[in-house]
Amino acid sequence: MADQSTRDPIEIRLTSAQRVHYVRQTGMVLPSSLSFYPAQLKRLSSVAVKAGTDTLPISRSAVKEVLEPKSSSEQGSDSFAVEVMLTSEQKEQIRQVTGHVFTSLRIVPDDVPVTYNETWDDAIPIRVGRTMVIKPADKSYETSHATQIIELPVGDSSKQGVFGTGRHPSTQLSLVLLEEYVESGDRVLDLGTGSGILAVAAAKLGASEVLALDIGAAAVAIAQETVSLNNVADVVEVDQGSIESAAPPFDLVVANIFPKVIIELAPNLGTTLRHAGVLITSGSVVTRAKETANAVCAAGFSLEKQRPQDNWIGMVFRKP
Ligand SMILES: C[S@@+](CC[C@H](N)C(=O)[O-])C[C@H]1O[C@@H](n2cnc3c(N)ncnc32)[C@H](O)[C@@H]1O
Hints:
The protein is α/β, with parallel strands linked by helices.
């Protein structure tokens, strides 16, 4: 094997089993390899060796996890680490650089760049909830009973990287909960609109005003296209931005966004809703649901409902 005591970064290629484990724990996608400078790996390994652990922390937060491990009663109250077991080849790769054998990597998801796990290719019409069908605009769907049909744009490669084809459990959970909670005439905020799918669903379910916000320019462009395709531009406004661009009060906020963001925004979500308003969140995998719910409840909400699908949880909170 090559001498790795050089200054070049080393690449640790991740197996599909490691990536699947990580996605199940966090809902986020790991890159296909992790890159480290040897000096960085040596620093991280010396922390682990001093702490007497055979788990190698790969970020500053993961180092904190190693140095200040939480008791089980504190689990889920602060950062959240995932342990990824190393293959023998990866162990050897790391041993060559650090001189130590580690059995696993400790990764704090918030320190790893987020990518969304969806592709727009090969989308087909799907039924969601009792009344909705999500379909690419160029595919037909025959139905004999009254159905809300939500059409999604097709044929533009810029959609890659924008989330919201309707196939992901977190989107479907939000759709089903919108179907249950949107009332005719509601003013709705769709925070993190992605493709605009939830904003269009809210409009079709009877909301009289919907604000769809996303921090990503590509998402805003696709969401605008989705809104025109579905002829709901008189109800749905799409803007680039986050919660600070939303003038309260809303009757309902839906946010299919990762726990880190929901936790950060929880106090603002409280001020955005009217008294007795509803907050729907669905971007959390099961392992992070408690952490998200605790933060939202600490901002004054009460947890009204939890709905699981696969490894994901949709949650409904009520503002007092
Ligand atoms: C998981 S996607 C959800 C897309 C769509 N609403 C759905 O349910 O399929 C999350 C979206 O939230 C956006 N986002 C992330 N942080 C945000 C924030 N602080 N404010 C607004 N949008 C945000 C991302 O750009 C992304 O498009």
